[in-house]
Structures are given as structure tokens and as C-alpha cells.
Amino acid sequence: MVEYRIELVGVPVADVDRSRAFYGETLGWPVDHDQVVSDEIRFVQVTPPGSACSIAFGVGISDMPAGSLRALQCVVASIEEAHADLESRGVAVSDIDEQAWGRFVYFADPDGNSWSIQELPDYSKMA
Known about the structure:
This protein has one domain (8-126): 2,3-Dihydroxybiphenyl 1,2-Dioxygenase, domain 1 (Roll). It is 17% helix and 35% strand. It is an alpha/beta fold.
């Protein structure tokens, strides 16, 4: 069977510079590309540390309304460390949500695109 690996998820934003600052500076995620292709297209790619999948936003990238993306999810080994990291960066993050199937925290980008972070202690073995 062919392996299909998700490479990129488009995130709809209203203000590209504000989003670049949030993801790149506030969250501290590496900005892989910021390319103005033409007057109608600007492409910014950001990759969460340790992730094989990136997010992209810009001008001329998506027809989705800004802030309409839900349920983006990252996994971490320690939810306490992720919560502390997000708080220390000034991100409005939820309290730790304890569920029978896992532990989570939630936050949103400046446009309201929502993220969840799930604790999977052995996530590195899943690759």
C-alpha cells in the first residue's frame, strides 16, 4: 500500500504579518518560508518543532474564512511542559483537560483557528 503522509495544512488568516509573528515569534515555531510569489500570492510555511507536518498561510492560499479552521492538533510527551511553555510565551491557553482517553490543553491563534495539544508520553515511538 502507498504511504500517504500529511505534509502541509493550510491555515486561513486575515493578517499574514500578525500570524507570522504569532507562530514564528510568540510560539517560537521555525518559519521555513516566507515568499511573495506575486502581488496576489504570499506563502508562509511554519513547522512546529519535532513535526513532520507544516502549516501554511498567506495571501491567495485559501478560500476559507479567516479563523474557521478547527481541531488542529499536536502531540507532546508532557502536557505540563507544553502548558507552561505556552503560558510563558503569553499565549492564552486553557487549563489542562483530563479525559479518560488523554490529557489536553487548547489555544487559538489571533484569528481564532483552534489548536489542541494532546499528551502522548510515547509519541516518539509512533513515527
